[in-house]
Design goal:
By secondary structure, this protein is of the alpha/beta class. The chain contains six helices and 14 strands. It has helices spanning about 15-30, 40-45, 60-65, 70-80, 90-95, 200-210; strands at about 5-10, 35-40, 50, 85-90, 100, 105, 115-120, 130-135, 135-140, 155-160, 160-165, 170-175, 180-185, 190. The strands form three sheets. It has an eight-stranded mixed β-sheet. A four-stranded mixed β-sheet has the order 6-5-7-11, with helices on one face. A hairpin with a 3-residue loop joins strand 12 (about 170-175) and strand 13. Helix 1 (about 15-30) packs across helix 6 (about 200-210).
């Protein structure tokens, strides 16, 4: 298996920022990963680890991913059956859910039981979308979070959030007049609601650990 990280290009991601951030942490961490942006399922199936970004509406993103012949099948084979480390970012994380309820109900990948619903802050003065820097609050240990320092902040841009069915799949939250899932995962699968590629030192440390993660 090549030392390649595949960033999936399905027309719904901030690919350049993610690519540059991962290239930097690969170089600085000496993991020597080739960072490959691709829409080719065969390249994804051959990758050592995979990143699925996402920007936009849940249904549009799921539709875009499903529209690439063989891509969902390649992901199931490489991630679920063969255990490749996988990271979903923002809507890429939300697509792990059973169902997304943005502009109707849309089936997700179903890798982590839960639903994606509109966030509803208890403080009516807080605006939707939730946009900007918010503190991460670790709820249980995970290699990708490491020793998360108190007061660590990450950058969020979203109107919908992931509500996992099993709290064991939740590793960090943020508060926006109520808790919002910030990091979820199980086994070799992880997802962040925040954008690590835009979260400066905290985000780069997270991505660096992803390149070294051996679930």
């Amino acid at each position: 298996m090549s030392n390649t990280l595949a960033i999936i290009d399905y027309g719904s991601g901030n690919l350049r920022s993610a690519e540059k951030a991962l290239q930097r942490v690969s170089r600085e961490g000496a993991t020597e990963h080739e960072i490959l942006v691709t829409s080719d399922p065969e390249r994804v199936a051959a990758a050592e680890r995979i990143v699925l970004p996402g920007v936009g509406a849940f249904g549009d993103c799921m539709g875009g991913l499903s529209a690439i012949p063989g891509m969902v099948e390649a992901l199931h084979e490489r991630v679920l059956k063969k255990g490749a480390p996988f990271l979903g970012i923002c809507v890429g994380m939300q697509l792990l859910a059973t169902i997304g309820r943005e502009h109707g109900d849309h089936k997700g990948l179903g890798w982590i039981d839960g639903e994606v619903v509109r966030i509803a802050p208890t403080n009516p003065d807080l605006k939707i979308p939730h946009m900007g820097w918010n503190e991460l609050q670790q709820t249980r240990p995970h290699f990708l979070l490491g020793d998360l320092p108190a007061g660590a902040h990450a950058y969020f841009v979203h109107s919908f959030g992931f509500k996992p069915k099993d709290e064991a799949d939740l590793f960090a939250t943020t508060d926006y007049a109520g808790p919002i899932s910030a990091v979820i995962g199980r086994d070799n699968i992880a997802g962040t609601q925040f954008h690590p590629e835009k979260s400066q030192a905290v985000g780069l440390a997270f991505l660096s650990r992803f390149l070294k993660w051996r679930p």
